[in-house]
Specification:
The protein is an alpha+beta fold. The chain has one domain. Helices cover 54% and strands 14% of the residues.
């Protein structure tokens, strides 16, 4: 079973189909593309700040261990370890980048694959969108403008909400 975090875009668009096309599904867990080609993965995901930081850190590793044979070998192992760590955290970084762009966390979707996870998410999400589309009328009608009737004439029955009036 694959787990996805779902992020809704910052959209005031009233069309549900337009908003649904912009919903982002971020797979939880290890990212193979981020391990094999991390810089290209960051470019594809449009994570510019993370790309700059990744390149800066990997460029600083050889400088910190020196340029002799032992330093180069140790820098290679450290770079490999950082790349593997990045692959484990890449999807979490993508979620944070989406939130930085204004996306909001909507739900968690699960399924055997992404298609099934999308189907389960949209099955629950679409009815909520059509319900929120119907906004209740906020302007008072002419019959509603009269003040509410007060409780019995003895004054002890006056209630505000669930609490007796003091």
């Amino acid at each position: 079973m694959t787990v996805y975090s779902v992020y809704e875009p910052p959209s005031d668009d009233s069309e549900v189909a337009v908003r649904a096309n912009k919903v982002a599904f971020v797979k939880e867990g290890f990212s193979w593309p981020a391990l094999l080609v991390p810089a290209l993965w960051l470019l594809y995901q449009r994570m510019w700040i993370e790309l700059i930081l990744f390149v800066a850190i990997l460029s600083a590793v050889p400088w910190s261990f020196g340029f002799d044979q032992t330093g180069k070998e140790f820098a290679g192992w450290v770079s490999l370890a950082l790349t593997i760590l990045f692959a484990f955290e890449a999807n979490d970084l993508r979620g944070w980048a989406l939130q930085r762009r204004g996306y909001r966390f909507a739900a968690v979707a699960t399924g055997r694959d992404r298609t099934e996870a999308e189907r389960s998410f949209f099955t629950a999400w679409l009815p909520q969108q059509t319900r929120s589309k119907r906004v209740p009328e906020t302007t008072p009608r002419a019959s509603d403008t009269s003040p509410p009737a007060r409780g019995g004439g003895d004054g002890g029955d006056d209630v505000i909400g669930l609490f007796p009036q003091a």
